[in-house]
Design brief:
four-stranded antiparallel sheet, alpha/beta, eight-stranded mixed sheet, 405 residues
Length: 405
């Protein structure tokens, strides 16, 4: 019988286990170049304008610092990479019936034929309840909400597995709706976003992005202006620089951190991940709730969560050449995590703009004050610091209070 600990017990266990390693872990967490893993992008960089790439980074070599964390928390051997117990503890997420009945939508391109069976393996490994089509927890549709699915793609299948597993890790009781666009064009992915909302999802995660363009304002209107719906988007994995749709003023742009256990009160430490996207949009207007003065337009990001492949998460994927357990990073991990946290926090009120919620509850976030993703001016757009900064936004979840209206 697998034993699952409460987030409080998990935090205490990890903090105690980290005492002997706290100093080197903290030093390594301050810079994602302190140690190295090798990674490969699941999706190729787009060759055409207004075509998106997924933001999943698969670890292919080296040793991740999260390799043994989960094994201290359960009686059964756990895969490398952070799993549900670690992520719930790091971000003080509730583990009882929170999120029950709420649907988190995942929007991706192309089909993952093994999505449901791979999700079942992930959830069984960590003692989570089954989430299947048969029990009404899982549903997969094409971009218009019908049963007609697109062609399969192994790279995007990795992204899909990562997204499904991260929603499960953060909100085990949530239902999951997977909407698969027929291609990675912004038009098709945007159509899938609209379908997710039409099907009733109040929380929609998008782990993809591409270059900004003058068409972004029209995309904002067509695909992302959904009052009362929390839409999260990965900020990018290329370091300092802005991508769309993270730059949309209607979404919560999710940056990335390096996450390690520590001997402090929290039991964890975070720094800005060097790969997290951030900066000042060239096209999107600044939303009223953003008050930073170094960017006249929309600033990226808003909040953040673990994304560094060196402190990566466990994912189960078998489509294509993949054979099972792997470790992933990228802001593809942080976006679905934050979407699930919104779901844990409760349904946004009708007409609200959930992207503004964290700005009204900054004291309920973990402020990330170190790390950098490049060089820029003003420096806060690319460097972690007290209060708001580009790579990590306002910080990472400290419970769910920052994500309520």
């Amino acid at each position: 019988m697998r034993r699952t600990l409460s987030p409080t017990a998990v935090a205490a266990t990890l903090a105690a286990a980290a005492l002997a390693l706290a100093t080197p872990l903290a030093q390594a967490a301050s810079s994602s170049t302190a140690a190295h893993v090798t990674t490969v992008r699941s999706c190729a960089t787009p060759a055409h304008k207004d075509v998106m790439a997924c933001k999943a980074l698969k670890v292919t070599g080296g040793t991740v610092k999260s390799a043994n964390a989960e094994r201290a928390l359960t009686t059964a051997a756990a895969p490398s990479g952070y799993g549900p117990a670690s992520l719930q503890a790091a971000y003080k997420l509730p583990s009882s019936s929170a999120g029950s009945g709420r649907t988190v939508a995942i929007v991706d391109a192309y089909d993952d034929p093994n999505a449901e069976s791979d999700l079942a393996k992930y959830r069984a490994q960590y003692g989570l309840s089954a989430c299947t089509t048969a029990n009404g927890c899982f549903k997969k549709v094409g971009q218009t909400g019908t049963s007609t699915l697109p062609t399969a793609d192994a790279g995007w299948a990795e992204e899909i597995s990562l997204d499904l597993d991260m929603v499960s890790a953060a909100c085990p009781n949530c239902k999951i709706l997977l909407v698969e666009a027929k291609s990675a064009s912004m038009a098709n992915l945007g159509t899938a976003v609209n379908a997710a909302v039409k099907l009733g999802a109040k929380y929609v995660s998008n782990s993809y992005g591409g270059g900004e363009s003058s068409a972004d304002s029209s995309y904002d209107t067509k695909y992302f202006n959904h009052p009362g719906v929390a839409i999260t988007v990965s900020s990018g994995d290329g370091g300092y620089g802005v991508e769309y749709p993270a730059a949309s003023r209607y979404v919560t742009a999710v940056g990335g951190t390096s996450l390690s256990t520590a001997s402090n009160t929290r039991g964890w430490t975070e720094s800005a991940w060097s790969g997290a996207g951030s900066g000042c949009s060239g096209y999107d207007a600044k939303p009223s709730w953003q008050k930073d003065t170094g960017c006249a337009k929309r600033t990226v990001a808003d909040v953040s969560a673990v994304a560094d492949p060196q402190t990566g998460v466990a994912v189960y994927d078998t489509y294509g050449s993949d054979t099972g357990w792997e470790v992933f990073g990228g802001t593809s991990a942080s976006s679905p995590l934050i979407a699930a946290v919104y779901a844990l926090a409760g349904a946004p009120s009708s007409g609200s703009t959930p992207a503004s919620f964290p700005y009204a509850h900054t004291g309920s976030l973990n402020d990330v004050t170190s790390g950098s993703n490049g060089s820029c001016s003003p420096s806060y757009l690319c460097t972690g610091g007290s209060g708001y900064d580009g790579p990590t936004g306002l910080g990472t979840p400290n419970g769910t209070a920052a994500f309520t209206g």
